[in-house]
Amino acid sequence: MFKSNFSKLALAAGAVGLLLFFLTCGERKGGVQVSGGGDLAAIAEARGLTPADLVAAAKTYMPTGRHDEYYLFGSGGHSGQVLVIGVPSMRLLKVIGVFTPEPWQGWGYSNETREVLKAGSPAGKELNWGDTHHPALSETNGDYDGQFLFINDKANARVAVIDLRDFETKQIIKNPLSMSDHGGTFVTPNTDWVIEGGQYAMPWSGEYAPLDQYKEKYRGMVTFWKFDRAKGRILPEQSFALELPPYWQDLSDAGKLVSDGWIFMNSFNTEMATGGIEEGNPPFEAGASQRDMDYLHVINLNKAAELFRAGKTTKINGFNVLPLSVSAAEGVLTFIPEPKSPHGVDVAPDGNYLVISGKLDPHATVYNFTKIKAAIGSGNFSGKDEFGVPILNFDDVVDAQIELGLGPLHTQFDPNGYAYTSLFLESAIARWTMGGDWTQKHGKEPWTLVDKVSVHYNVGHICTAEGDNVNPDGKYLVSLNKWAVDRFGNVGPLLPQNFQLIDVSDPRGAMQLLYDMPIGVGEPHYAQMIKADKINSWEVYPEVGWNPGTQSKDPNGIMPGQEKVERNGKKVEIWMSAMRSHYNPERVQVNKGDHVIWHITNGERAKDATHGFGLPYYNVNLSLEPGETQTIEFVADQAGVYPFYCTEFCSALHLEMTGYLLVKP
Ligand code: CUK
Ligand code: CUA
After folding, report:
1. If you measure from the C-alpha of residue 252 to the centroid of ligand 1, how many angstroms do you get, rounded to a whole number?
2. Please, what are the domains in the chain?
């Protein structure tokens, strides 16, 4: 205890000393001498580093062996994966295979993982990419609990469940109604429901309907997936969707505390434009931007779930759907006008304020949930839309509109009463004060733009530490920038995206840009940042013979010494072990045309003692972490000799960890 406090103090004193040194005696030669490391002043001078650069370096540098304070879970965009990054070092810790096969993790090459990917593909098709947008950490009482992570695939309307005990994807579900989604994933405060909102309206169940039947046949949707925490799975049969007008639903967020049980969702194209620039119609970008207001969808989820349980849903494509007429009549769905083509909707930590900002309007608009509830309760509507959904008066429910700058998109929060909003067109982050008790306790003027920091460039989402739950840490902000332009060395015409780390820990001082991290795998959208000590993942699998697909002992898992090969007609089944530095058996002999079922168990109990299993021609690469069992299955359709080998450099004799699959003609 004393030691760690002392070293923290020493570190802080060092940084301050460094700064003072540069400010007061920049001219003097010689300075902070580090044994074996040279002269800090000389290094700074040679590299052209300013005192601010050195402070930024000291704030992000992670000495060897030390761990980051936070994990950032970032979407991997159209890589289809999830990125795990340490903060503040911005070191990439892992890329979790989700919608795209990923050979290092053996993701998509074993029976079990192939099944998970296949379950997310429409019948008869194999989808092998996704466009991940919004990761959602599981929550308990509105606070991240570090158990599960969910993420959507915008391209194909799918949702994935990742178990954070081993950071592996366990389930992928295809939305049975829609081709695309966007307002997901977000979770309710106890992770009872995982929200997946639609994006581009379409006739359901993949049916054909011409665009001139848009209003009659095309529909929007939001799906509420029931999550079973004990099973670690979404339960489709206990899940349901709401039929929505064919506006294009956009982002959503779950209510919390006072607004627990309610869901908020943006929309655009309430004009119901159907494009057709080639036929002389206005293009979508103009057609979908004619009206001054679109509709914030306010959804009473508890009420909807009650109607679902009472049997008020119908089946579409085998899935439970609450008809629009029922939602409109029963008070499940209410609209509120929101300024023109909004994008982000973010519920503040107190659950009472909703911040909505939109691309074409320089303001953040703040809605007050208490007023929304009162207005719905009093039935004080201005009218109905053409689908019969009641509309509230904008002025009855809005508390503030704060001019922030150009192209405001997404908002996050900190514990000091500040909100942070990304400004896409301005390439900046705005820091501003919230209103209500939550902010007044910090003694600040409410609803005021305080400060801005430039980012590089065109920021989409931002993420503060635990910044969208009931108890934000603030502290660090990561800006997920779409364009990098000149920030990195030339890598050809396709440039990486740029994650920028910003220090927002000082409520009185300015925000400080600390670090640029290139992302060269896809275009990430949202990210969430969780305290590292909330992640309690396994170091090795609990038992030898563990099946990560079921998170239990695999009946085909073996202990070293139990290896065997059984032949039954044309079926050959192999139970193999992998230990440093050999497979057992090392020779596997089959005949051409045999159906091979091959179980491999890593018998190791040492942390990080992973073995791979790469088999040429048959397109197999497994990652067998300590204790893990995986199964592969194929028809030995070509005679020949196939050397298999361990793809992880596991020991000095790793190159000898090999064997032959012999397929006799
Ligand atoms: S979205 Cu990409 S910047 Cu999918 Cu949340 Cu806003
Ligand atoms: Cu096992 Cu290399």
Report:
1. 11
2. 2-60 (no CATH), 70-274+284-534 (2.130.10.10), 546-664 (2.60.40.420)
